[in-house]
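Field reference: sequence -> structure
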Amino acid sequence: MAHGTTPHYHNAMGVQKIEIGSKEFKCVGALPPFDHPHVFLDMGDDSDIVCPYCSTHYIHNGNLGAAASSPKEAVYDAHKA
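Structure field:
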């Protein structure tokens, strides 16, 4: 990735879909300690992907920054956890 790190996203909010600015990322599920294995997902040529652990539907939105999301609360910063 151009910015040097792989963005991480969570779905502790329980929403059906999360728009993200990156096509390569890690899903952590809910917030620790209720997270699932931090799985790397790559959309490739597609514009969306479903996490095989928590079934969160991620949709690529090219208008968002590489590590941004909508809702913005879905960004997970492991360094702050």
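Note: The chain has a mean pLDDT of 93.
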